[in-house]
Amino acid sequence: MATKGATLAPQRVRVGPGRGAACPPPGCMSYTLTTPLYYVNDRAHLGSAYTTLACDTIARFQRLKGEQVVFITGCDEHGQKIQRTAEAAGLTPQAHCDAVSEGYRALWDRWQISHDRFIRTTDPRHRQLVEQFFARVEANGDVVEGRQQGWYCVACEEFKDDAPGSQDPECAIHRKPLEWRDEVNLFFRLSRYQSEIEALIRRPGFIAPASRQKEVENFVAQGLRDFSISRVDLPWGIPVPGHGGHTFYVWFDALLGYLSALLPAEDPVDLDLIRQRGWPAQLHVIGKDILRFHAVYWPAMLLSAGLPLPERVFGHGFLTREGQKMGKSLGNVLDPEQLLERCGRDAVRWYLLRDIPFGDDGDFQQQRFIDLVNNDLANTIGNLLNRTSSMARRWFADAVPPAGPASQPDHPLAVAALGAGQAVSGALEALDFRTAAEAALQLAISANGFLNDQAPWKRMKQEGEEAQVAADLYAVLEATRWVAVLLAPLVPDLSERMLIQLGQQPFVSSHSSGVPSAWLDAQHWGGLLPGLPLIEPQPVMQRLELEAPL
Ligand code: MSP
Known about the structure:
By secondary structure, the chain is α/β, with parallel strands linked by helices. Helices cover 42% and strands 13% of the residues. The protein is built from 18 helices and 15 strands. It has a six-stranded parallel sheet, sandwiched between helices. A four-stranded antiparallel sheet has the order 5-4-6-8. Helix 9 (291-304) links the parallel strand 11 and strand 12. It is elongated, with a radius of gyration of 26 Å. 5'-O-[(L-methionyl)-sulphamoyl]adenosine (MSP) binds at residues 36-39, 47-48, 50-51, 76, 254-255, 257, 286-287, 289-290, 318-319, 326.
């Protein structure tokens, strides 16, 4: 089979200059990651915010390590679902898409999402790229005409192979009636890629978490069937060149948004350029419902076009609320806008990242949310900084006390800090946010325990104990600095407030700075300089008090 020099091997590439991305120093590798491109049939909900916050954490972590990150998000704006939504609202599809995608953009701004690119599939440059990509696939003999018959879910924009034989089948995800379709379409010859896709999905790490690999393997083992990539009588889509009356199937168009996002306005629209602009992606983060599109259809399309494949596809779980699926009909949808307004960025990020194992389904529980935020952030971490800093100021002239023996790397808190640093980096590399958050929190718990054991408030009353009190307070302040450092990718605002209180420079994680990692440098014991002035402490984390349910 001719696959035009396509490769299965992951590669890291050098990124060239582009909008929002400084030219990286020679030898600097890029880290490209993506959220799904969200449908604009409705405003963002907590599910989309969840994926985006998780990706933001990964992007910040990679930047803090010194990587040149290209973090892509955006909106998927074509297809029947969008067309119908716009019609129902009495708007043209374009006006509808403009309004909703602007809402996404504004929401991500308020959440301080650090994306480098925001792609809209209605961008004319995207259309050009889709045309180029299709020309490659067609030239490779992978486009054929065929008849598509089957049950279709408009909400999923997907044919359902497993629709029951009944008269009125429903979509198992949306609980909406499926629609019968019978039309002549263009098909992509997915069946030609059976062996490559089998090899790809068996590659360790390509599908993550590993628990999701089996379901894709089972699907592929049934034999890959060609899938239709065009629709007739669907005006709200990109016309297929050379095939009058056909528009591209929304998924064929949307997946290519990951590529068009890599070409900023000053670049020509040229598929050959994308390798210099950050392709292949290191990571696609998606919900488990769209894993098949990303782990099977998308790689086959790329193989056909002679382009390298993404390194990893991570399918996370679904969020429910107090044990129930979130839905408008149940009236229990959590609006990310309101959540932000009432609870703040740190609280929501901390709860979602710390409490829900990334990859599994998770349940949003209001009381647990409040308890974790108050116990972990306000009490354990916030009070630790506040009380230690107050004691140091009171007894050591408003400054960091002399370290004495606490500067030694075998100090118990030095050992704990080093271990926490390694645990946080290892866990974030594996996208295990929960373990990372727990490791940072555990360091604060150890520091609190040490402080209680040493009880400097008692020692200070004893003759000749001042040097020991200084060393103990130094050790706890230094451990607290480490906590702030380790929290930087997870809860950047809280990390910043803590660092400022400790007289430290906060980290830049919202864009790639192109300089060697200050964050990694900060992870050495003794970074806090004795004698450094300490400002009057302010609570770094407000307690969450919610009078009414969210
Ligand atoms: N437009 C496609 C993606 C195209 S990517 C080239 C799409 N959009 S979506 O807006 O419907 O969904 C985007 C993501 O949000 C999906 O991965 C979906 O799994 C996720 N979520 C939707 N509801 C969710 C929850 N309740 N919880 C967590 N994520 C969920 O699919």
